[in-house]
């Protein structure tokens, strides 16, 4: 049991979010009436009576940053007993319960700005995580505590990809700003839906991305890749991709065209295999691995 301090007791339950984006963290600056010196903290705040914590943190993030956040299902809870702390013009025996969620905002979200007038924060901004950790950015202890225990969301995905060759070229798609590895070229394909056969998935993806129908041949390679980054949803993920590469044939006269709008593909093209092998074109490793495993293409019949 905590010792009696003699001060009026004050208990507060609040919800906050750790929101990361490519080495940066979203923070709110405390108002001078709370901290005369510059001090940044996680966006969030106190729960209204009867309010769900997940609803509260979404509301608070919007009020303090102007951004619409999504938060995870689980959270960490921190307890701080602060006897004699100064609150609202007097000293109190404060007990703070802080519920900290993982959060994320859309990758095309605007710059943060404070929406709430007269609240506890006066500014919102992205800051380098490295600057927070090395003390360059002055932050409340809660920020360091939450970062020390934060782990990126782990996401493993099974994908199916099409190796389509014609003469000395391979059919590739370019990754848009909404996907990992923006600007690089890869094989047509994508995630296998729950319950979907991989061979069906590769034909569906070929049609969705390139507007082509084809025939699925042999499985020529199994590729895996492990990295961290911002997903199309805006969530920062520890991502493990396992890709099945199938040889796929299309009609001789068929030509690809970009069929996906506002997705993770922004261009499709026949790319000379020599440019892939020389490095003249930036491609993901799954392209080279698929070409190596498949060997020389069969002669084209005319």
TrEMBL record:
Gene3D superfamilies: Nucleoside Triphosphate Pyrophosphohydrolase. It holds the Pfam family NUDIX. Keywords: Hydrolase. Transmembrane segments: none annotated. PROSITE patterns: NUDIX, NUDIX_BOX. It comes from the Bacteria. CDD domains: NUDIX_Hydrolase. Residues 10-149, 155-293 form the Nudix hydrolase domain. InterPro entries: Nudix_hydrolase, NUDIX_hydrolase-like_dom_sf, NUDIX_hydrolase_CS, NUDIX_hydrolase_dom. Belongs to the Nudix hydrolase family. This is NUDIX domain-containing protein.
